[in-house]
Amino acid sequence: MNRYYIFLILPIFKNKKFCQNKIFEQQNLTTRSAETRSLVKALNASVVFEKIININVPKSSTLISNTILKEIKITLNLQKTDLIVCDCSLSPIQQRNLEKFLQIKIIDRTQLIIQIFGLRAKTKEGKLQVELANLSFEKTRLVRSWTHLERQRGALSKIGGPGESQIELDKRMINSKIKQLKKSLIKVKQTREVQRKLRKNISSLIFSLVGYTNSGKSTIFNSLTSSDILVKDMVFATLDTKMGSIKMSENKKIIISDTVGFISALPTELIDSFKSSLEELFTADYLLLVHDLSNPNIENQAKLVFDILISIGFTEEELENKIINVFNKCDLNSDLSKIKIKYKKNFVKTSALTSNGMKDLKHFIENLAEKKFTKVLFHIPMNSYKISSWLYKNSHVYNEIFCDIDFVGNKVKAKISIDKLNLFKSHFPEIELHTIR
């Protein structure tokens, strides 16, 4: 794979009115630079030069002033550079004018992240989601971005209508492709819903790992489920949702899912496109929110994750009941006293790399599973095979007495989850049952 050399521009918006991302205000410059460099590294590229630019009022045509542009052009002549990355969002006009002036390809933060997602997507669903995000973004870039799109087709042309310009034709083709991709994702979503129902039937509880990218979610997933998914000190090492299970006593299973990590200024196109994957979070009984204890920006990262979860449909009450904070990389920093984040009452400290605290996390998960179960005595009439089969499939039957003297049928003692018990009552309301203490 070829290595590319990047010129990195870090715009600092002095006026908060123009700041494009709140977390940029809270991050110190070193943290922001390190995060963007890690994004560049994920594209197998190297930053050969980095320029910090203070902006009071962004210029509508080029974002930055002509004086600074001339300085950049001089620097470019001295550097071996393939690409410029501007660590903010650029309008189509700004991107076109900058490329025209500097005579080099320029991408903004949104394009950088979409490119990384494109490399990481392995499953059919992941590829569809990335393609949809890319087309949704590129659709806005057609507005007078390239001169060849200004050509018009005449009335006698076989392609396009009377006076239809190439830009209109390209927009129509992109809209058609977007509709096609959305239809394909609807089919994938329907398949996912069937799979979720099956998982609910075989599982006692479902836990989803969420958190900022590169916080150690995949390493924790491997440790809990004895899996071997890719683990790398790199942003977005895992993109497609992975599933694994923890086997417990009494034939119960706990399912663990590993989802895509979040990052500051995550493009809205990607959030919209990946909603079908993120819906896995809604079916989870608990969210294992993984934090990187070694990161000095941990509080801001946690806030960003909370904001994204709320933006996709969670309520504050749901998050308070579902979130379990997992403070990872405690081998690098173990002090929690100064960290102020929401929903801190339930937490576990771990170091997935050294396995420190992983047994505590597993016991914590198993204890939560136990609290979700209750012991019940069911009075099952004779020859009610359908009911008996349902109980054996959805609960742990630990005692069954056949043809008791005072009851013509069977008495079945089982340990069953609260959710499954409510489901049993709705399916078989005529059955007599008693809770055992």
Form type? elongated
Give the uncertain stretches in residue-range form.
144-158
Structural class: alpha/beta
Largest sheet features: 6 strands, mixed
Instruction: Count the DSSP helices.
Output: 16
**Largest sheet, spatial ordering of strands:** 6-7-5-8-9-10
| Elements, N to C (H/E) | EHHEHEHEHHHEHEEHHHEHHEEHEHEEHE
Q: What's the assembly state of these chains?
A: single chain
Question: Could you explain the architecture of this structure?
Answer:
By secondary structure, the chain is an alpha/beta fold. It is 43% helix and 21% strand. The chain has helices at residues 22-26, 29-41, 66-78, 92-102, 109-120, 124-141, 166-202, 217-225, 268-273, 275-278, 280-283, 298-311, 316-322, 358-371, 385-394, 418-427; strands spanning 4-13, 45-55, 83-86, 106-108, 205-211, 242-247, 253-258, 286-292, 323-328, 347-349, 373-381, 396-402, 409-417, 432-436. Strands 6-7-5-8-9-10 form a 6-stranded mixed beta sheet, with helices on both faces. Helix 5 (109-120) packs antiparallel against helix 6 and helix 6 packs antiparallel against helix 7 (166-202). The protein is elongated and about 95 Å long. The model is unreliable at 144-158 (pLDDT under 50).
